[in-house]
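step: validate -> pass
step: tokenize input -> pass
step: predict -> running
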Amino acid sequence: MSAPPVDAVRTEEAPGPVRVSVVPLLRRLHFYAGVLVGPFLLVAALSGMLYAFAPQFDRVFYGDLLEVSSAPGAPRPLAEQVAAAQAALPDGVVTSVQLSGDPDATTRVVLSSPGLAVDHARTVYVDPYTAQVNGQLTTWFGSTPVTAWLDNLHANLHLGETGALYSELAASWLWVVALGGLVLWLVRQRTARRRVRALVAPEKGAKGVRKTRSWHASTGVWVLLGALFLSVTGLTWSNHAGANFGAALTALNAEAPALDTGLGGGEGATSSDGHGEHRTGSPRAEVDPATFDRVLVAARGAGLDGPLELAVPAAPGTAWTAAQTDNTWPVRLDKVAVDPRTATVTARADFADRPLLAKLSTLGIQAHMGVLFGLVNQLALFLLAAGILTLVVLGYRMWWQRRPTRADRRARLGAAPKRGTWQQLPLWFVIPAPLVLIAVGWAIPLLGLSLLAFLVLDGLIGLARRRAEAGDTRDVDARSTP
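step: predict -> pass
step: emit ->
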């Protein structure tokens, strides 16, 4: 929700006693947050709308690589498929193999190769029924070039760490404008009957800015829960607020347990980052392709069905890992460690054993990405993004519609809610407010810093205007003095 209604608070109100209320402050905060953060929300909604349908884009651009061309039958041994991928990329070193649960999907053999950018790899797509190579792509954490491009557009506008500030700023403020708008809507619709009617259609007989405001408010209520969900889940993996969230999980002992990959008394742990490839700073040694078949048999015997990733350990003397990669509800995300010499399972980490917060975090991220509930999830994200886009556009339209149009007061935009709203705050709000702001600012740094910057700038502008008005008053008094 962007620019709120401002007609309820006018600068030309007659002087009178100040009514103790937080509503004027919420109205002013909602207005400026909508105006200033609106462009970030527009970009995040548009790019997120595109990213939600990344699987469909993949099929359009890479269908010949991702799908088999032969009739499904008995798959060839993984050793043959891996050998075919190695022959297609002789200078590559196999790091993992990704098996799809779809019988029409190719096997993905991931190889590290000289000259690739950090966190990139070459993925060779092999027909599992013929062991013939369909082609290869440079992938980023398992994502095709198109999906990686859309991912980076949504996350950082292809500007790296600096660009990532935009998406975190949008997520930081989204919940603020959403809840602030809800309070303003509840205050305006004072009875239950009016609230129900306002959800269905705009205000009866409303025209101009009142009609726009009515649609803005109703749309905001409809998308409220979705907006809060996007804000919370987006912040969990952002750079700054996400780091604090991770620290909180650690403090609460609520992180997903690591998989022990130690062999022969050694210690080690590894975990997939959710993108289908493993981060590593050391090169892997050449492996016997037949090992993949032994590890696969051990993983299936341990109950790991469905889509699977078999990963070669980065360090010698540690176990291979087999991890389920089914992110569609009900998810299958169990992992086991397998001794490649004996093909026995040495350790496991099941999704069911994760702490509740770790489960919710994982499920929330998958839903945010549009994969948890398949096409239904994608359509829900599309409608939610469309709703946020509508809110922002209607908010700016209200701002423009409220501009003065009289010849002596003409302006391009409407006036903002008046200053001095802090004077109308009740004592129960004023006393704990600084502590709450400090806590929120620590947990969500970009929200705290941007709010502080706004308060300082707003205060400086107000001070400059008061000085200018005082100077004008002195000039008038000087001219009127005989």
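step: describe -> The first strand starts at residue 93 and ends at 99.
step: cleanup -> pass
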